[in-house]
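ligand=adenosine-5'-diphosphate
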Amino acid sequence: MTKEQVIVTAAQMRDIEGRIFAAGMPVAALMEKVARLISDRLQAIIPQGQRVGILVGPGHNGGDALVVARELHFRGYQVWIYQPFSKLKELTSQHFQYAQSLGIPVYQEIEELPSCDFLVDGLFGFGLEREITDSIALAINHFNEWNQPIFSIDLPSGLHTDTGAVLGTAIRANHTFCLGLWKQGLLQEQALEYIGKAELIDFDIPLADIHDVLGNPPKINRITKTTALATLPLPRSPVTHKYKSGHLLLICGSRRYAGGAILTGLGARASGVGMLSIAVPESIKPLLVSHLPEALIIDCPETETGAISHLQLPGKTPLSSFTVIACGPGLTKDATPIVEQVINSEVPLILDADALNILAQLGTISTLQKRKTTTVLTPHTGEFHRLFPDIDFKDRVKAVQTAASQTGAVVLLKGARTAISNPQGVVWINPESTPALARGGSGDVLSGLMGGLLAQVANKQVNIEDVVATAAWWHSQAGILAAEERTELGVDAFTLTQYLMKVVIAI
Ligand SMILES: NC(=O)C1=CN([C@@H]2O[C@H](COP(=O)(O)OP(=O)(O)OC[C@H]3O[C@@H](n4cnc5c(N)ncnc54)[C@H](O)[C@@H]3O)[C@@H](O)[C@H]2O)[C@@H](O)CC1
Ligand SMILES: Nc1ncnc2c1ncn2[C@@H]1O[C@H](COP(=O)(O)OP(=O)(O)O)[C@@H](O)[C@H]1O
Ligand SMILES: [K+]
C-alpha cells in the first residue's frame, strides 16, 4: 500500500497525528517540517521576488502559513500577511509574533491590503467545524474575486474535510497542497470547482499509524496507477486459449440505439477478452458484424419497437457457458424480459443504462437479493436516484456504500469522481478524470471494457471491486490522454475507444 492510495476523514487524520505526537514528535517540529515542504514547492512554482499574500487563520493551518511566510520572506519574496483573528492557537501565535518581528507587514482589514501576484490560503484546514460567516466570509469572497492564483494549504478554506461541502463560503484555489494523506473531501464531486490542481505533500507519516487507525487494508481507497495495474490481465499466460481468456456476453442495443451496442463492443474489444459474443435485435446484426468482425453476433427476435424481445442463443448454448454478462446499453425499456432472464441466471452480471431502469421498475433490492452470484451496477447520478430513491445523496461515498450493502452488489457510481463500493463497504474512488468524458456513449464504452476485464479474471483470486476500479481508471485515463491530444472537445465516445489501448501502451 502506498500513501497515494490512502484517504482519511478529519477525525482519522487527527487520530493519526495524535499518535505521532504521543510517540514524541514535537508539534512545532512537525509544523516546521510540513511548512518547509510547502514552501519548497512554492519556490519551485513562484518566480523569485514576486509579491505573495499569506492568509492566516487561527489554528495550525494558519501556523503552517506563517512558517511559509517566514521562509518565503528569507528567500527574497515580497511577503505580506492578512491575519484578521483576535485569538490564535499558541504555536500559531508564536509564529505570528516572530513574523511581525521580522518586519513582514501584517494587515487585519482587506481594504488595506496591497496587491500581490500570488495568494497562499492558510485560513482553515481540517479543523474547520462550522459555517464561515461575517467578515471572514466576506474576505474569502473578496479574495476569490482577485485574479491572482491561490495556493491552499491542506484544503481550500471553507470546504468540509469529509464531504467536500462548502461551509458558508470557500476559497477557490488554483492549487491545493494536501498534507500527509488525501482528505476525503478533496475526492468529492462538490469540492472539485474549489480545489484546482491537487498535490499530496508527503511528510513521512509512519505506515503503522495509518494501519492502526484505518485498518489494513483500509476501507476507503484512492485508485492509483499501481493499484489499477495490479489487476490488469497482463502478462497473459503463454498457454492460454480464447476460452481461457474469458467469454463475455454483451446484451445491448435496439433499432433506436444501435450505436450503443457498437460502442459497448468496442470497449470490450480493447479489454483483450478471449471471446466476445454480442446479443442484439436481429435487424441490427449486419451493422454489428461490420464494426466488430471478430465478435459472435447473436441475433435475437425483436419487439415491434425494435428492442430485443427475448434471448435466443445458437444451438443449445446455455447462459452458463459465458464467464460474464454485461447488459444494458441501448436496450430501451421494452427489453424487460431479457433483463429478468439474466438476473435469474447464475452468471456474474454487469447491469448498466436501461437494464438499471428496468431493475428499478422490478424493485432494486428485492430483485437483487435473489441473486446468488456477482452483480455489478454502474449507475450515473440519475440512474442511482431511480434505483435507490431513499438513499441520502449528500455524501456520495456513504451513498454508494449504502447501495452496495442493501443490494449485495458492487456499485459503481459514475461521475467526475467515480466511486465504487462492495457490499462490505470497501470503497475505491477514481481521483483523476476529465470533463471531456461528459458525452453520450462514454458510459457504454465503460460497460464493455469492464465486462471484458471481469471475464478475463473471473476465475482468478481477485476482488470484483478491484477489477471494476481498474476499468474505471483505464476508461478515465483514456479520456485524459485523448483530451491532451485533442482538447476536451475532441473526445467523443468512438474516439475514446481508440485511446484505451494507448493507455496500456504508455505504461
Ligand atoms: N498539528 C500539526 O503540527 C500539524 C498541523 N497541520 C495543519 O493543521 C491544520 C489543522 O489545524 P487545526 O486543528 O488547528 O485546525 P485549523 O487550522 O484548520 O482551524 C481550526 C481553528 O479555526 C477555528 N474555527 C473553526 N471553524 C471556524 C469558523 N467557521 N469560523 C471561525 N473560526 C473557526 C477553530 O476554533 C480553531 O481555532 C491542518 O489542516 C494542517 O494545515 C499539518 O500541517 C500537519 C501537522
Ligand atoms: N465531468 C466529468 N468528469 C469526468 N468524468 C465524467 C464527467 N462526466 C461524466 N464522466 C464519465 O463519463 C461516463 C458517462 O457515462 P454515462 O452517464 O453512463 O453516459 P452514457 O450513458 O451516455 O454512455 C462515466 O464514466 C462518467 O464517470
Ligand atoms: K487552507
